[in-house]
């Protein structure tokens, strides 16, 4: 979805937490394993930079994460549209930093204005490094030199309530929240894996975990919450974790039969632009997603990940009972896991 269309509204932390509890109950998860790392301060890295709004050396609320799904469905808000409808689907190319409309935006690294638009500014910092600032009414012009924490690039456009920051290295988007980039940034919230499901196909029906056979799809729902409270209509809407991993163990004894595999990883860079429905599973939609002419006011997103994009062949396992363990981790290492027991029966 275009970043403009997402700038208007949000849902409360309570709504998201209630949703996650419901999903846990419905998902049949056996246990969650939480874990947290200590918050990280300003990275001791010469490439680290401050925030694009004052105060530059203080952390600000982030309401949209790197890699979040951006979904604009062409059809109405129906299950058919959600599971197979056409539209515009993309990965969020930066982070959304919450700030009041009219807030002055500054360059995080000095450079030259490469280009501007009525709602963004592109700064070339040399050495293959560049930054793009969205939802900003420019007050600079092309070719102008700008100084970090000094030159006003412009002001946040009315009705957007945030500045979107994209960082590029050699033309490729990188995660601004990774260590050594935007600082100071600490995070003590723990991502949640809310459900694990098995499907007949990418858009197929859910299967009963009591008896699986043949090739199946494995889909996990996971989310994270902002580490700092977001004010206004976008109050603490869910975001994606930075990493989703999984493994399969025997239900008794815990012997690992399918070693840890990665289903989603945006700790450094994004997947290929055309890989959206390879990474995300159908049923995924962003916060306040668009369905035709319908804007899903105050409705939180749902982030579902395809753990084995080419499908998982249960015949790789002997008939028996197993446990799949899915772990979601944020950019600072906070993590939790959910387990789902399932049985494989492929006949004699």
Mean pLDDT: 89
- Point out poorly predicted stretches: 1-33, 36-45
Estimate what percentage of residues fall within beta strands.
35-45%
Rg calculated over all Cα atoms: 21 Å
**Secondary structure tally: strands:** 24
Q: What do we call the CATH topology of the domain at 7-38 and 187-344? A: Coagulation Factor XIII, Chain A, domain 1
- Subunit arrangement of the protein: single chain
Describe this structure in words.
With 348 residues, the chain is mainly beta. It has a domain at 7-38 and 187-344: Coagulation Factor XIII, Chain A, domain 1 (Distorted Sandwich), CATH 2.70.50. The protein is 7% helix and 36% strand. The chain is built from three helices and 24 strands. It has helices at residues 13-27, 79-84, 276-279; strands at 32-35, 62-64, 69-73, 87-91, 95-98, 104-105, 111-117, 120-126, 129-134, 136-138, 145-146, 154-156, 162-169, 172-174, 192-199, 215-223, 243-250, 256-265, 290-291, 294-295, 304-306, 312-313, 320-329, 335-344. Strands 2, 5, 7, 8, 9, 11, 13 and 14 form an eight-stranded antiparallel β-sheet that branches. A five-stranded antiparallel β-sheet has the order 1-24-23-17-18, with no helix packed on it. Strand 17 (243-250) and strand 18 form a beta hairpin. The longest helix is centred in the N-terminal third of the chain and has 15 residues, at 13-27. The protein is elongated, with a radius of gyration of 21 Å. Mean pLDDT is 89; it is low at 1-33 and 36-45.
């Amino acid at each position: 979805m275009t970043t403009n269309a997402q700038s208007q509204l949000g849902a409360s932390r309570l709504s998201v937490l209630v949703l996650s509890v419901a999903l846990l109950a419905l998902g049949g998860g056996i246990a969650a394993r939480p874990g947290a790392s200590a918050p990280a301060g300003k990275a001791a890295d010469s490439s680290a930079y401050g925030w694009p709004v004052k105060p530059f050396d203080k952390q600000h609320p982030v309401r949209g994460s790197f890699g979040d799904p951006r979904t604009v469905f062409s059809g109405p808000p129906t299950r058919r549209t959600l599971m197979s409808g056409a539209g515009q689907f993309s990965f969020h190319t930066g982070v959304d930093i919450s700030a009041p409309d009219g807030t002055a935006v500054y360059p995080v690294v000095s450079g030259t204005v490469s280009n501007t638009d009525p709602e963004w500014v592109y700064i070339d910092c040399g050495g293959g490094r560049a930054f793009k600032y969205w939802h900003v009414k420019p007050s600079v012009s092309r070719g102008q030199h700008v100084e970090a924490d000094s030159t006003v690039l412009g002001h946040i456009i009315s009705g957007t309530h945030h500045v979107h920051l994209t960082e590029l290295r050699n033309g490729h988007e990188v995660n601004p929240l990774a260590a050594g980039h935007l600082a100071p940034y600490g995070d003590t919230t723990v991502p949640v894996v809310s459900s694990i499901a098995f499907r007949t196909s990418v858009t197929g029906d859910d299967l009963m975990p009591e008896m699986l056979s043949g090739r199946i799809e494995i889909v996990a729902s996971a989310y994270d919450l902002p580490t700092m409270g977001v004010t206004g209509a976008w109050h603490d809407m869910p975001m994606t974790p930075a990493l989703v991993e999984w493994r399969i163990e025997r239900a008794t004894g815990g012997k690992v039969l399918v070693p840890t595999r990665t289903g989603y990883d945006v700790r450094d860079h994004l997947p290929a632009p055309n890989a959206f429905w390879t990474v995300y599973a159908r049923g995924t939609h962003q916060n306040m997603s668009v369905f035709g002419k319908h804007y899903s006011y105050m409705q939180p997103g749902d982030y579902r990940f395809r753990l084995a994009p080419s499908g998982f062949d249960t015949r790789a396992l002997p008939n028996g009972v197993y446990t799949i363990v899915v772990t979601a981790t944020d950019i600072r290492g906070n993590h939790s896991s959910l387990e789902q027991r399932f049985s494989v029966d492929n006949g004699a």
